[in-house]
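Below is a complete specimen:
___
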Amino acid sequence: MNRSENDEEREITEAFWNKQISILKTSYINTIIIILNIVIFIYSLAAGNTFVAKYDHRSDLLVAGLDYYRIITSMFLHSDLEHLFSNMLALFFVGANVEHDIGHIPYVILYFLSGIAGNLVSTYYDCLTGQFIPAIGASGAVFGVVGAVVVIVFFGRKKLRKGSNLMLRLGLMIALSVYSGFTADNIDNAAHIGGLIGGILITLFITIAGRKNYTMEEWL
């Protein structure tokens, strides 16, 4: 690679990170969601298990027509620091770009409806298996954001830089995430799949109804 090619590659890299910094600064909804999750996690540590038990996802109560609020409140609870960190890290790097592409209000709708979809699918799965295990976490909503990326990349794929292989990398990431959910213990994979499908459908509607045009500059 000669000097001019090195300079070109460096310019592309610098442009990418400058774009990312700009996106992070303007994606305030995603930032607020991350801060809320962190604050609630810290509070839950001080409040103890009673607080978590009052707001976690309980399929048996939902089926009985009780405590519907748990469908939403459970999305802001996490079992430990690792659980919180993995979800917020994904939101930090992916959520900001999705919010930038689809808009602030659509992102709020996407996040909450994906999380709700995940919890509803989890409830249905619990009813099928007869195992009503309390669940917490933003994973359903996070997978919804990942589902949004699928739609955004699909509609903007023609404008991807040649050789980016983003579609392939995205598919592998989703496949590995779902697979790990089936093989790991204490993972509500039904919520993950429900959130993913919900995110895809919601973003598909937002994209078509809003006639969104994705440049893919931020995903190169």
Observations:
- The two ends are 21 Å apart (CA to CA).
- Residues 104-129 form the longest helix (26 residues).
- The chain is about 75% helix and 0% strand.
- The CA atoms of residues 72 and 116 lie 6 Å apart.
